[in-house]
Amino acid sequence: MKKVGILGGTFDPPHLGHLFIAQEVQYKLELDEVWFIPAYEAPHKRKSRTDAVLRLEMVEAAIAENPYFRMESIEVDRLGKSYTFDTMELLQEMHPDTAFHFIIGADLVESLHTWHRIDDLVDKLTFVGVGRPGYELMTTYPVTYVDIPELEISSSMIRERVKQGAPVHYLVSGAVFDIIKEQKLYAER
């Protein structure tokens, strides 16, 4: 059976923290691949101001050099709010011989009790929790913990730095930086 990690999010923008988490979990759990799944609209966040097509382009650019990474546009193609349960149901229909490992940060581990159809979801996949500064990996739901060095990088921090004119070169890949610059993303409007 193929073992695939899923890393979902708005990826507005995708940053080196996302790539590092995916690499560490792939390596430590011996996953065949990690699929990045940008949300069209995350149910727990404000709607992204960055167009979904641009976010897909940034994810593709960010992961291009890693043969274990691929992007899956299923949530953007579907439009609307992206609920993990619905996405995983579709992915399991499309890939019945795949065991999915859903990678989440400690902030999401702590909020699993609020997820749509969480009791059904834990039967469909393995949650993989990784540390995040300021959070504990605490939940009553089954989670496989992977210990990785914590990087304090967030998409919101990168957007704020761009808005202020601060450098972000070593927080995002060069290809993502080029897209941010070319498209004038996150700058004061």
UniProtKB/TrEMBL annotation:
Entries under Gene3D superfamilies matching the protein: HUPs (3.40.50.620)
Cytidyltransferase-like domain boundaries: 6-161
Name of the encoding gene: nadD
Domain of life: Bacteria
CDD domains: NMNAT
Example GO BP: NAD+ biosynthetic process
Keyword terms, alphabetized: ATP-binding, NAD, Nucleotide-binding, Nucleotidyltransferase, Pyridine nucleotide biosynthesis, Transferase
Matching InterPro entries: Cyt_trans-like, NadD/NMNAT, Rossmann-like_a/b/a_fold
Similarity comment text for this entry: Belongs to the NadD family.
HAMAP family: NaMN_adenylyltr
Name this polypeptide is given: Probable nicotinate-nucleotide adenylyltransferase
EC number: 2.7.7.18
Signal peptide: none
Pathways involved: Cofactor biosynthesis; NAD(+) biosynthesis; deamido-NAD(+) from nicotinate D-ribonucleotide: step 1/1
Coiled-coil regions listed: none
Reaction catalysed by this enzyme: nicotinate beta-D-ribonucleotide + ATP + H(+) = deamido-NAD(+) + diphosphate
Function, as annotated: Catalyzes the reversible adenylation of nicotinate mononucleotide (NaMN) to nicotinic acid adenine dinucleotide (NaAD).
